Amino acid sequence: MLVVHDVVPDFLDDPSVHADVLPNIRALVAAAHDTRLPVVFAAPDRPGPGAEVPASLGVLPTDTIVRKPRYGALFGTPLGDELRAAGHDTIVICGISLAGGVETTVRDAFNQDFRSIVVADACLARPVPDQGWGAVTREEVARVTLSILAQRFARVVTTAQLCAELRG
Predict the structure, then answer these.
(1) Average pLDDT over every residue of 126-141
(2) CA distance 29 to 60
(3) Left, alpha or beta for 52 (phi > 0: left; psi -120 to 50: alpha)?
(4) Would the pLDDT of 14 be above 80?
(5) Mind giving me the DSSP string for 63-79?
(6) Which structural domains are found in the chain, ordered by start?
(7) What is the structure's pLDDT at 140?
(8) Is residue 83 a contact partner of residue 126, using CB atoms and an 8 Å limit?
(9) Mean pLDDT of the chain
(10) Sign of CA dihedral 144, 150, 155, 158
């Protein structure tokens, strides 16, 4: 199952999303559709157009939109139960924000005995302003987050790798 995390207008304000991440997310959604991998769009549980999943992502009527009350896509949603009922044991995840909702979803999945595949170049890493220890660049955030996830919680791949595996 492909989980597209928080790719909604309220979080698309970063120009690098449009240049770097969105084309890869669209490619993943298309590959999932082509290979009949179920697609879930996890979006904030709040009203308004800023929390709606853009049609430009290639959303089909067969896709599922899960409204989540917190950062992760599994907490407070039926997603875990739906995965188990469908016999799935693995999620593929991409979206916004790598060190926020994506990482939270991967850790929650691990705690519920699901495997995760993180598509690194289809996740936005945001810089962290100085919190008392110095500012952290988006590249540093991505390197550390992906390293920790790969070490303990997930397989980390690129869009090209995953699309080739799905279509291969």
Answers:
(1) 96
(2) 10
(3) beta
(4) no
(5) SEEEEESSSSSSTTSSH
(6) 2-167 (3.40.50.850)
(7) 97
(8) no
(9) 96
(10) positive
Q: What is the DSSP string of the chain?
A: -EEEES-SGGG--SHHIIIIIHHHHHHHHHHHHHTT--EEEEEESS-SGGGSPPGGGT--TTSEEEEESSSSSSTTSSHHHHHHHTT--EEEEEEE-IIIIIHHHHHHHHHTT-EEEEEEEEEEPPPB--SSS--B-HHHHHHHHHHHHHHHT-EEE-HHHHHHHHH-
pLDDT of residue 20: 85
Residue 15 pLDDT exceeds 80:
no
Position of tokens 């009949």? Answer: 36
pLDDT of residue 157: 98
> What are the φ/ψ torsions at residue 6 (nearest 5 degrees)?
55, 30
